[in-house]
Amino acid sequence: MTDPITKAVKAMTLVYGSTRNSMDSFASAASNPKQFPKVVLAVTVASGLVGFVLMQIVDQKRERNMQSFVPSQETKKSMTQNESVVRAMIENAKASTPTENLENAAMAQQNFMLFQFDKSVAEDKRDQSFLQRIAKRSDEIRNNEKDLND
Q: Which of 19, 45, 86, 124 is the most buried (most CB within 10 A)?
């Protein structure tokens, strides 16, 4: 008697306003051609309200979680090396062609995502120059960030 379906049927019966046995009155209302549109409307409105309330709860929890996360710029902490490398790579990607971006992404996958960043590890001179350019720009970004925080 306390399963969720029975509770939902009883709640819908209260919306319908009947005082008879809840299962019988809801079933008879749903099967009655004159009452069927009202039952459908009541079920639709009730499920919409439940969905709206649940979304509000989820949004509030998500907002609370996002407020507990504060990016490094707001806490005045120095930028990590990984953050500065990613920013340098984004700047480089904006200035590169799509073909160069694909080649750089493959090389970055090999050198950054699998291992800690090391500008001395590269397969050829082109990769070596790219890694050195990214490392240099990364250092510049970190130094600029430190200057802004001081």
A: 86
Q: How far is residue 136's CA from residue 88's CA, in Å, rounded to a whole number?
A: 9
- pLDDT for 28-72, tens place per residue? 777 888 888 888 898 999 999 999 999 999 998 888 877 766 554
DSSP state of 80: P
pTM of the model: 0.42
3-state secondary structure 87-113: HHHHHHHHHCCHHHHHHHHHHHHHHHH
Cβ count near 77 (within 10 Å): 12
In angstroms, what CA-CA distances link 98 with 92, 102, 104, 130?
11, 6, 10, 16
